[in-house]
Amino acid sequence: MNSLSPLLLLLLAPLAAMVAIVMKAPAQRTAAIAAALNLVLSIGLLFLYHAAQGGYDFVMDCPWAILPGLPPIHFHLGVDGISLPLVFLTAIVSFAAVVVSPGNIRRAPEYFCYLLLMSLGAMGAFISLDLFFFYIFHEFALIPTFLLIGIWGGQNRQFASFQITLYLMTGSLILLAGLLALVMAMPPDARSFDITTLQTYLSTHPLSLASQSVIFPLLLIGFGILVGLFPFHSWAPPGYASAPPAAAMMHAGVLKKFAIYGLIRVAIPMLHDGFEQWKYVLLILLLGNFIYAGFVTLAQKELPTMLGFSSIMHMGYLFLGLVTWNVIGLTGVVILMVAHGLSAALLFGLSGEITHRSGENRFTELGGLAKPAPLLAVLFSFASMASMGVPGLANFAGEVMVFFGSFSAKLIPFAAVAIYGTVITAIFQLRAIKTIFYGPIPARYQPQSGAAAGEATGMTDLNTLVEYVPFVLLTVASLIIGFMPFLLLHIVEPSVSLLPFLK
Amino acid sequence: MLSSAYVPYLAPEMLLTVWAMLLLLADAFLSLTPRAMAALSLAGILSATLLTLGFNTTPLLYWGGLCSWDGAAKFYHVFFLAVAALVTWMADDVQKPVRSGASEFIILPLFTTAGLMLLSSANDFMLLFVALELVTISFYILVAYQRRSVIALEAGVKYLILGALSSAFLVMGVAYIFGLTGTTLFTSTTPGVDSIANHFHNDFPVGVAFGLLLVLTGIGFKIAMVPFHSWAPDVYEGAPNSITAFLSVGSKAGGLIMLIRVVLGVFDHSTAAAIWIPALSIGAILSLILGNLAAIPQRNLKRLLGYSSIGHSGFILVAIIAASATLTGTAYTQSPNDLTGQVAVAAYLVTYLLATFTAFIVLAVLERRLPGLEIHHLAGLSQRSPLLAAAFALSLISMAGVPPMSGFIAKFYVVLVAWNKGLYTLLGFTIFAAVAALYYYLGPIKTMYWSEPLDEAPIRVERTTRHVLVILMILLVLTGFWAQSISILVHNAVIGKGVPAASAVAVNKEPRRKQRGIADSE
Amino acid sequence: MDITLNHYLAVAAVLFVIGLMGVIVRRNLIIIYMSLEMMLQAANLTLVAFSRFNHHIDGQIFVFFVITVAAAEVAVGLALIVALYRLRQTTQVQDLTTLKF
Amino acid sequence: MDLAWFLLLAPLAASIAILLNLHRKPNYAIGASVGSASVCFLTALAVATGAVKAPTPFEWISVPGLTVDIGMILDPLSKGMLLVVTGVGLLVHIFSIGYMAHDPSRGRFFGGLSIFMFSMTGIVLADNLIMLFLFWEGVGLSSYLLIGFWYEKESAAQAANKAFVCNRIADFGFMLGIITFWWIMGTVSVDPQILGQCYAKASMPQFSSTLQEWGAAQTLILHPGGISAHSAELVTLMVVALFCGCIGKSAMFPLHVWLPDAMEGPTPVSALIHAATMVAAGVYMLCRIYPILALSQAGMFLIACTGCFTAIFAALIAVQQNDIKRILAYSTLSQLGYMVMAVGCGGPDAAMFHLTTHAFFKALLFLAAGSVIHALHEEQDIWKMGGLWNKIPLTFWTFAIGMIALSGVPPFAGFFSKDYILTVAYTYGHGFYWVGVVTAFLTAFYMTRLVAVAFFGPPRTDAAKHPHESPPVMTVPLVILAVLSVIGGWGVYEFGIQSYYHNWSLDVLRDDGISYQAPAEISSAVPSGFVFFGILLSAFLYVNTASDPLNIPVLARKFYIDEFYDNVLVVLQQICANIVAWFDSWILEGLILRGAAYLSAGLGELLRLFQTGSLQTYAYIFTLGGGILIYITLFAH
């Protein structure tokens, strides 16, 4: 299967846009066009994918490199029902992130290049079927994240950018050690970097329990750091709080999903005995995500940090779904990844707008913004409802399947905690809506009559098409999946059913 | 013993030396411009390179066994010539104020390079010592070349004293090894001829161990291994940029090939390995920790790179330890080439060369434009000169080992070989050091990209410099992403140790035990 | 009393250590440099002794190389020290501490 | 396409249209909303007559082992409920046209109503628990939006949050229940036939001892996954968990606190959502899954107790409230308690019967109260009214009819349904019966108090002196509801609401003496006597008084439940949150992470101190280091 794959376009579009931007093309427009192309393409792929039979489609495989001491590396692209939704997620969030960014941002060409690079990295990681590229592509995003937070970030950006970069680098290195260990622990003639080959081989010839129980925790910690598994979550809230909205959208919405995807694709199917052995640890840790992060979220006094912790908390659902390792739970995980990506991107984007327009992100100082900014209020409410798992928005479909799956796996107390998580989420999200949008309007957010008001900023709503289209797009996507989850399920479920060791 | 058939292998060194002498004479009698001198010098380097490339890599000994020729020798020859080319170009193009009319700054590196090349194929402690001193003495001059600068002179003197000290240790060590084995020859192609490798298979006298450790002290100085590292930060800071790069890459590589030839070529059997593996492990761990941690508070860029260079030595030492055949591991056998520690070292050096020269070219350019080379002087560089900022950032990121830069591949290899050999403790330190390294490499990037420039004036970069930088940047990314490019370069960089003359066809994969069997049967 | 190899080695070791001590404790660069030469000579003595007692000529050849190289080193070294003196009017090591930390 | 889908699509389309654009054009929004409600009602009529059949369901979620349809059940239960919802809904829509006429944001208001109609019909029609939960949350959402309609008011925003969070807490249990249901049954469908089969399964055990089951529940909690899916404890657990949903939605004790606060919303909302329909959804849900509930005696007992307690508890509080809407809200709580008690006592038909009549008269009471409030320019304190009976006669008379119906005076609707419940309760246990009777007395008492204080006596404020009668668009719905409140309970032979539901229950349930018992024949004279006594006593106390002759702070302060929640539970939770957050930022991130970072940097500072710049130090380090290295490798291992 050496023919070219449409997936290649997904990588080429941002690449071409970056080159164009370096060649002095108008930055935001070019980036937006590339992102839009990707979005259209990924939607097209959703329809073209041979959903019914599952498995990989749009495969392209060409030998890439033979490194000494390593099995051959292939440039192997392909998507199945698990990665395709994530490709869509990447495309839509990238588009939103590009469009949301202010066009007159300083040093625009650099900014959009970094954003595109993040998008490229995430996209590449999801469509790669070779461990080497799977890993490398994800790392593409590390330095752009550092720079985006550092250059265009908000308060405390220096500390946050260093912390997020170093922490994630640590995670990546541990992950690298784990992946290497995985490949190297195989008998020499069976070693491969190819994910499909590895899956086939390891599902029939599992590694010895001893090596599995050493390698799995490496992968778990590596991926766990990247996704913010308790107690490795400390990088996320300050990082997201300081990041420019677009970067936070990309990272919280998309890049974090890489780790969950990695656990589904690599760690658990390939090291299933190790997983069985360590899953109780994972269960304890995910309780930490729910309860600990949930309580920390309740105590936050600023919107962005609250969202940061809440996104940590919601990773608990994904982990719970993973632990079930049955079709229902895993399908739920995939749906929920997309759903959480959309809602997190929305929330971070809107939080950026609120902070930008009101000049404030502390709950004590905000209030009554629904009057001057009704559209913002509506969209934020939608996003919060999605995050709370209100039916009709995408998250509910995923969460409910995770709950069902975990019952099916007899993880009843954990399911109970997870369901209780929706209560905690409701408490803090509703409180956020209330304090930001409801109540009397502080005088300084009254719409300004005269333009000469100086520094006193009248609160403005999302006015132009460009301002609200990205948010509306994300909301509509969430609503469509929420109302019609079967659209996505048809794609996801057959591929999930092909995973090995399903219970 | 002297077989003229093998003389051509020495031709590149000879060519360089003779050419350098001719150039010195020409400088005395003709009034050549420095540019012409540099062009001539580069021409010499180019011809030496072409010569070297013409040789195949079949391992053999020549010159009566004083020199060896193998994949490693060829690789390091080319490597040093590449370094020399860059140094010469830098000396002419971006280091104008340093050379200040005198041509020795351009010509001396030729001698150094010849010495390094000789070092990479030495098979005898005597030759090794002479080659090493050729390198060291020419470096004394180069480091202190700006003799009106206090800093440069101070650096030169420090390098001089400590270098001489390490030479003394080295000679003393060699004396003991010689005394207890009766020879200075590493290995021999002829069973009848005495060589060090033919001794000590069952017992390993303390005296030889002592000698070996003294030799390691001398080599440790060259590669800036802790605790013999003290010179590095000071000399890096004081020397001209091109020379710092030369020291950092060339001299370090010279020390490493020396180390490989000694510990892997001669002393790589279980009783001796029990001596040097712990010693190098301690050195590696200390280098990783000290180099990377002490770099964190540094404010001077050259000094920072000096400390980081110590850290890099730590990484490479891990690979050398993993290269020991006495450690058993689970290497992958299906790929056409084995990944051995030696290959990892070579790969590391290639990526290190790219990154280091990129960094020092940028620093050399900036030296003339900025009030100093402290980190804070870089403020806003990305706006004053996007090219310089990008080049410097890429080189730092590569040194930090962030994918997909070429430095990642190097670290990847190191991790891989260490993993294969089960060196988990060293691996742990490696990962810790990598994170700490990222910390201080991010610092200058931060300053270049975030901080507001103190001076808005754009920095113009000359055309040649620009082109060289762009090429280096492309290589930095390309070699990382198309990782095979490095492996093509380095897959042969393996010493052909102890190959019996009878089967001179040989391969580097010849099992160790077999050689020992031959030696035992004598 | 027979003078054995060990005696030579001992003398050489003592010389070496004296030289080393000189490098460490003396403050004048010239003296330090002389101490370094003493260390090299200690090595040479070792080489010659081994050569003599083991009946290998290689060691003595090596000594010539060492002497030659040391001479070259001294030439460069002294030139450096002179240059330093001309610039700073000192050859004391404690004055050479611009580069530190 | 099946016509029945219009029940869902019409309000959905209206709400989307209003969300997208029409909220800026109130009159179009009203048109869309009222139009969609009319379509709903007409379709519901068609459905009820059997002209429209249930549509083909489509798969919403379908993975191996879990199938969730979107489909409809059209059985007597849902048809009856559908008529109530759409009928009362339409009336409230019409009433709102007048009531909200002066609010600039009324477009948004009608949008919320349409979302509500969409969700509520969804609940009624849902053929499985997940679909029911979907719409269940949907009504919660619309309730949240409408309670917080005047979001500038801090109290309204707070009340909206409270409502949502209380419902969420309950839904926590409900969701657990749904999933347990699926685990036991292998399906989430609530199709009566499927439930009937499960019910008939011989393997389904039945229990009578609560204590015995509590021990089993402990086993379950301590040993997760350690029991088989069909074990008895699990069934009880499932029943209790499912009942949790009802506790939230129907505002049973202890989650009743949100309903009185929900009165912050516009009055039509209170009438429709927080009195007539949405809060009754919990009861409807219990009736829908009644065959499953009946499997657990302990569960049923718990349901009956909760309902019974809430009934008398809320009635007691209502006695001392002064806000007209709050009195009605507590009355709603109390009546919901009745219904839940009826379900628990084995009379789902009684519950549904009361639900229907209650929808009529409580909607009536709220709308009439709205009319009063409208007339008095947003005055809600009954002690600031007075003497209204002849100034706004239409409102007064309809209100009075509602009050009489609620009190259970024969032959008004409330009398029949309440009597039926008491009968069921008597059959189940005499205690429940007597509590019910006392509640009936209290109901009569506080309703009479309300009417006496608000409508009789001298006007106590200026506003009360010059009220104005509401426009016809508001009074016509009142009249229609008043008529229904009078005749709603009547039954002639086999024709009437009571026998309608009775027939339904006989179809669904088996007569095995446990889940359904034929009601005992008791006289309705006793409760009626209590009711009359209550009315008379209250009239005696309250007609022509200027202040409340009773003064019972514990009732006026609602048994201090709100204070307990706000000052203990919420504060406790916040303290926990702050402690954990402190730990996170100071210990985990601060001490451990930054500690590691600072330690590294500090160590780096320390290490660079070796680099003194002195050549002699370097030589010393060189020698010493070399010596130590040699010593370690040669001698120390």
Pair with the biggest interface: A-D, 61 and 56 residues
Indicate the proportion of strand residues of chain C: under 5%
Annotation, overall tally of beta strands of chain D: 4
Estimated helix fraction of chain D: over 70%
Kindly identify the CATH topology of chain C.
Helix Hairpins
Task: Name the helix and strand elements of chain C from N-terminus to C-terminus, one letter apiece.
Answer: HHH
Helices and strands in order:
The complex is a heterotetramer of chains A (503), B (522), C (101) and D (637).
Chain A: H1 6-22, H2 27-48, E1 57-65, E2 73-79, H3 83-100, H4 108-127, H5 131-139, H6 142-152, H7 157-184, H8 195-204, H9 209-227, H10 236-242, H11 245-255, H12 257-270, H13 272-298, H14 303-324, H15 327-358, H16 374-388, H17 394-408, H18 412-437, H19 465-483, H20 485-497
Antiparallel strand pairs in A: 1-2
Chain B: H1 11-29, H2 34-54, E1 60-62, E2 67-69, H3 71-93, H4 96-99, H5 104-121, H6 125-143, H7 150-181, H8 206-222, H9 231-238, H10 241-264, H11 270-295, H12 301-322, H13 341-369, H14 381-384, H15 386-400, H16 406-420, H17 424-449, H18 463-481, H19 484-490, H20 512-521
Antiparallel strand pairs in B: 1-2
Helix pairs in contact in B: 1-2, 1-5, 2-3, 3-5, 3-10, 3-13, 5-6, 5-10, 6-7, 6-10, 7-8, 7-9, 8-10, 8-11, 9-10, 9-12, 10-12, 10-13, 11-12, 11-17, 12-13, 12-16, 12-17, 13-15, 13-16, 13-18, 13-19, 15-17, 15-18, 16-18
Chain C: H1 5-25, H2 29-54, H3 58-88
Helix pairs in contact in C: 1-2, 2-3
In brief, what are we looking at here?
The complex is a heterotetramer of chains A (503), B (522), C (101) and D (637). Chain B has 522 residues and is mostly helical. Chain B has helices at 11-29, 34-54, 71-93, 96-99, 104-121, 125-143, 150-181, 206-222, 231-238, 241-264, 270-295, 301-322, 341-369, 381-384, 386-400, 406-420, 424-449, 463-481, 484-490, 512-521; strands spanning 60-62, 67-69.
